[in-house]
Amino acid sequence: MKTILSGNEAIARGAYEAGCLVACGYPGTPSTEILENTLKYNEINSSWAPNEKVALEVVIGASFGGGRALCTMKHVGVNVAADPLFTLSYTGVRGGLVIVAADDPEMHSSQNEQDSRNYAKFAKVPMLEPSDSMECKEFTRLAFELSEQYDAPVMLRSSTRISHGKSVVELGERVTDLPLPKLEKNPAKLVMLPGNARVRHPLVEQKLLDLSKAAATMPLNRMEIRDSSIGIITAGICYQYVREVLPDASTLKLGMVHPLPHDLIREFAAKVDKLYVIEELDPFIEDQVKAMGLKAIGKEIIPLCGELTPGRLRSAFCLPQPASTPVDNMPGRPPNMCPGCPHRGVFFALNQLKAYVTGDIGCYTLGFMPPLSAMDTCVCMGASIGMATGVTKVVSAEEKKKVVAVIGDSTFLHTGMNGLMDMVYNNSPATVIILDNSITAMTGRQDNPASGHTLMNEPTNAVNIPLLCKALGAKNIRVINPLDLEETKRVIGEEMERPEPSVIITNKPCVLIKRDDVFQKGPVYAVDAGKCTGCRACLKIGCPAIEWRPAGDGSKKGKAGIDPLLCTGCDVCRQLCKFDAIGSVK
Amino acid sequence: MSRQVTNVLLVGVGGQGILLASEILSEAAMLAGFDVKKSEIHGMSQRGGSVVSHVRYGTEVFSPIVPEGEGDILFGFELMETARSLLLLKPGGTVVANDLQISPPSVLMGQDTYPAGLAERIKSQFADFLLVDGQKLAADAGNVKAANTVLLGAISKRLSISEAYWLKALEKMVPVKALEINKRAFLLGREC
């Protein structure tokens, strides 16, 4: 049967067809929807882990128990999972083990554009790279088979255009002849003490050599000889752009990007006059091709930064660009916190208190945007608290009071709680605000260990965040209603003054949570035009439901208005109006 | 190039139903026997930012994104986003736009003004321009939320996919309880 699937849906389908029993990961764009789709297959136990390291460890356990298992994460998640990954290549697997790393060239939704292929080489793990949804499905299946055949974890590298692109897929059946998982002890292989690991390492190197040889005849590496004056080695989405822009060129399309099929590369190079390597981000294939002593052109013309596009590829080859229509400058449309978002009041208060805010990864990173403009750092998941501690180690006593870390519930549980442990242990006077909106919001409302539900939507045990902070040793813990501006500003101000570690936890849920008992829209608000003086105070919170309506006489005068379809009745704007012009509509 | 590929761009603001419309279009193209690819960016765009969805169909499609200046049809759910994406369209391309303005944050805050006369400006650049009152027609069909389906109807006549495949795609992609209204909305749009 033919159907249209996204790359992520196709990877989930491939795992299903491969007989996968366990799928685990942490949400991260563009990888999130893989687990939201393995969820649709009852045969797969799908779950969110608190972070990528735990996710990989769960999947390693499933594999050691004898089942096929899939682990998913975005590119920066591999940094978190790197510790188990690097030793997993030594132990190898029992059930097939596949790790999806979804890269984000162009940083559509990420803080960097690291190239995961380097991890495959660094951790000595084979890596496949699909170029459309059909290959996502087929390569996932194949990755499980190779994993068992070569006793190695196999990485599958995707990218935003692959994961979130859709194309036609022919569905297959699930394999049914796999052995049933059961415990089996094999300490020489699975206990990586020095004595055992020394035995395992040469085996890893040999596996990669064997795989490189075998890869020359694997159908996933494909030579397509057309015009032999130009030969292009490429992989993944770049293959599609090459076919689009240089349809006559010969191509060596690599489905396995680590290890490289050296024999096949030499054979291809001998067939063409001029050899190019076209790849996004790092010269990963190119450096190895050049190290083989072959002459090739790559990053001399292909950009190192950002994603490749047909237009950028055309520029690289000095081909004419199609004529296009120039566009006038218009106001931009950046993303914004939703109407009624419980984070808004906190950032409004932090702005007013002139805090130095170490930020973190989530919707609240939008607190950086005007008019709230209250975030000063953002590096990686969980970094806010450690950075706040570090800042207070160097600045003056007066400036220490200004330092506030903000972090969401999911990010706190991901890698933030270690930072709090350190802050309390080493007695930093900074303030931590945990923006607990009961969900992993930015990636599309995924459950987490504090939300009370599993990925499979079953009610479950939940972390009690205030008690957790207490257990970590924090003495000053206060829970606030972030929709109460006076309380929010007062409590944050008091805790900033306190010369000890303190934790403030907000208690209002994300407005996008669909579960009936969590978020409920209040009565809609409206502006009384008779009372509105046009002072613009309510515009300072940047709520998308509040609009400035100019008087239309060419003057700067006007009045505020509220869009009743967008308003959630959060009440924050009412608290800003000194003229009692905003109220709920009865 | 002999490969005939039709390049469609669907643009607007997060939350307008653009992704569903592009899924229906992709499905209809596949049912009509074409190869189809589609690409868009999720993530930050979900928080009220601009959304651009690329759909390409034909005998064989390689790139999932429409190369700049090669769009055949631009399908705009909102006027400013339509104007912003004109550079993706080929000269002489077709524009079907919803007659709707959604203010971006800087306009809401009174720091910028929404550009005036956009529809007239687009018309002066692209002769094949159709402005549709998606909201009104959707209300006529029974639900203002079906504006995206009205617009889909309006572009459907300009694409080489027959009505039967469109209706089949709607049946597959739209929840049963909303299907009748969406079919009416689609057919009203098709008359534009």
Present the secondary structure layout:
The complex is a heterodimer of chains A (586) and B (192).
Chain A: E1 2-6, H1 7-17, E2 22-25, H2 33-38, E3 45-48, H3 52-64, E4 69-74, H4 75-91, E5 97-103, H5 117-123, E6 127-128, H6 133-149, E7 154-159, H7 160-163, E8 166-170, H8 187-190, H9 194-214, E9 222-224, E10 227-235, H10 237-245, E11 249-254, E12 256-258, H11 262-271, E13 274-278, H12 284-291, H13 310-316, H14 344-352, E14 356-358, H15 383-394, H16 397-400, E15 403-408, H17 409-425, E16 431-435, H18 465-471, E17 476-480, H19 485-497, E18 502-506, E19 525-527, E20 546-550, E21 558-562, H20 572-576, E22 582-584
Parallel strand pairs in A: 2-3, 2-4, 4-5, 5-7, 6-7, 10-11, 10-13, 14-15, 15-16, 16-18, 17-18
Antiparallel strand pairs in A: 1-8, 6-12, 9-11, 19-22, 20-21
Helix pairs in contact in A: 1-6, 3-4, 10-13, 14-19, 15-17
Chain B: E1 5-13, H1 18-31, E2 35-40, E3 50-58, E4 71-76, H2 79-84, E5 89-98, H3 105-108, H4 118-125, E6 129-132, H5 134-141, H6 147-156, H7 163-173, H8 176-190
Parallel strand pairs in B: 1-4, 4-5, 5-6
Antiparallel strand pairs in B: 1-3, 2-3
Instruction: Please mark out the parts of chain A with pLDDT under 50 across 5 or more consecutive residues, or reply none.
Output: none
> Span from first to last CA of chain B?
32 Å
For the largest sheet of chain B, list the strands in their spatial order: 2-3-1-4-5-6
Q: Portion of residues in helices of chain B?
A: 25-40%
Structural class by sheet pairing and helices of chain A = alpha/beta
- Which homologous superfamily in CATH is the superfamily of chain B? Pyruvate-ferredoxin oxidoreductase, PFOR, domain III
Q: Average the pLDDT over all residues of chain B and give the rounded result.
A: 92
* CATH superfamily annotation of the largest domain in chain A: Thiamin diphosphate (ThDP)-binding fold, Pyr/PP domains
Which percent band covers the strand fraction of chain A? 15-25%
Count of individual domains of chain A: 4
If you compute it from the alpha carbons, what radius of gyration of chain B comes out, rounded to the nearest whole angstrom? 16 Å
Which outline of chain A best applies?
globular
Oligomerization category of the chains in this entry? heterodimer
Termini gap of chain A: 54 Å
Counting H and I runs of at least 4 residues, what is the number of helices of chain B?
8
